[in-house]
Amino acid sequence: LIASGSEAFLDAVVSVSTLVAAGISVLFGLSLEGFLGAIIAILILKTAFEILTESLSGIIGERVGVETTNEIKAFIRDRENVLGAYDLILHKYGPEKIIGSVHIEVPDDLTAKEIHVVTRDIMQEVYEKFGIILTVGIYATNNTDEKYQAMRDEISKIIGEFSEILSFHAFYVDEKRKVISVDIVVDFKAENKYELPEKITSYMKGKYSEYEYLIAIDSDFSD
Question: Whole-model pTM?
Answer without folding.
Answer: 0.69
